[in-house]
Amino acid sequence: MEPLKQNLLKRGDEVVLRVDDAAFEGKTIGRYEGFVVFVEGAVPGDTVRVRILKSKKNYAEAKVVTVEQPSPHRVVPRCRHFGPCGGCKWQHVDYQVQLRFKQQHVVDAFERIGGFTNPNVLPIIGSEEVFFYRNKMEYSFSDKEWVEFLPDASPNFQPETLNSKLFLGLHVPQRYDKVLEITECHLQSGLSNEILNFTRSFARRENLPVYSSDADAGYLRFLVIRESKRTNELMVNLVTYEDRPEILKHFTAGLLAAVPEVTTVVNTINSKKAQIAFGDRERVYAGDGVINERLGNLLFTISASSFFQTNTHQAERLYTVAKSLAALKQTDIVWDLYSGTGSIALFVSDAVRQVIGVESVESAVQDANRNAQANHIENCTFILGDLKDRLTKDREWIASHPRPDVMIIDPPRSGMHPKVVEEILEIAPERIVYLSCNPATQARDVKSLAVRYDVLALQPVDMFPHTYHIENVAKLTLRS
Ligand SMILES: C[S@@+](CC[C@H](N)C(=O)[O-])C[C@H]1O[C@@H](n2cnc3c(N)ncnc32)[C@H](O)[C@@H]1O
Fold this sequence. Notes:
Blueprint: E1 14-22, E2 28-32, E3 35-40, E4 47-55, E5 59-69, H1 95-113, E6 136-142, E7 167-171, E8 179-181, H2 190-205, E9 220-227, E10 234-240, H3 245-258, E11 264-269, E12 281-286, E13 290-295, E14 298-303, H4 312-325, E15 333-337, H5 343-348, E16 354-359, H6 362-374, E17 380-384, H7 387-392, H8 395-400, E18 406-409, H9 418-427, E19 431-436, H10 439-449, E20 453-461, E21 471-478
Parallel strand pairs: 3-5, 10-11, 15-16, 15-18, 16-17, 18-19
Antiparallel strand pairs: 1-2, 1-4, 2-3, 4-5, 6-7, 6-9, 7-8, 9-10, 11-12, 13-14, 19-21, 20-21
């Protein structure tokens, strides 16, 4: 093995290095005199001057100061906020190259964390829409603005140095007190940008106070825009600290005049300190308080508080992949673990005998049952419970439900609890399809399952162009 290079770098040093590869969370890797440096804001293939931010025994972290020799993979970012806004870290990288990095990320996770040799990673499924693909955006109000110039910021980027006490935009990474003012975002739609800018102007004109968690006082908290991609329904949800109907009525009238495409206006009232866009109460000021979205043949009714996959088109492709990898038969019993609002269970229900979903959030289980009913699906049951307890402690529950032929598993980023993995090995369904938004924890869990299962295929799907996020589906079959 090559001996580790000695760290010659100190915090604040500026050095020139070539960046060779993509790393985790949108960072890149370069080497200085053989020593590993993780670089923020570069593209593999760049030669950059960097400033060292952190220096450790085995690696350093740095930020780009100037690009000395640009990578051939660079493209001009479309968005004027690119750079300071952390939303699209890879908008300056050619999309096909982004896909290559994401594919490699899955390979690396399964080789390094999973310990698999030459894992069968199928070619990544890219997104046809690389802009305007999101059906939900959540903007934050703040009385503090984030202003920063980064070398990768688009030449058009002009931070507004307004003498204002109200800003509306996105939090920059790791700064939850300040927002970067956003006047155009290329992830949702032009209408969404119109709503964003109308709302900011309205709030400034009316001199509305922003909620501050330090003072635990104020009014405006979040603006959430949900836009169905299939039915053209458009929800605007203003999340506030207090219930002030006179302001909301005035806002709604102005908004509907400015953006008549809006189909429903909701006010979520959250009088708690926690900075989340959910709340205690919901009031509807226009329309019926929901939007409808299609996935395949299914229609989902989405309220202001419902979870729904944010990229409709790619969610449909992801579920189609999962369904096909599960090789379903009409006689199959399927357990959908971490079933959320039931979208996967409902999507596969027409191909099997029965689906049982297990999910720990009560409102998600309610949404799942409602979605089943609305789509006249009778072979899906959704059960509330923490999987760790359901599968490991609740023998009665296990005994009273039919054993699964197939498990479809879609856990949160942290993956599965080791006890849940153990119990899956005990129950031993013939086929497992494991979806994950975090290949690292997925590779860890699949490594544990591999004591009894063969890993037949891994299929990455890109749900979020211009970000470093990647969804991956693994197909496992029980060894006989
Ligand atoms: C990635 S989401 C799955 C979403 C789901 N496939 C859908 O389409 O709605 C993970 C889900 O796991 C649920 N969850 C997290 N920890 C859990 C646990 N210990 N037991 C059961 N469900 C859990 C979360 O509430 C969330 O709905």
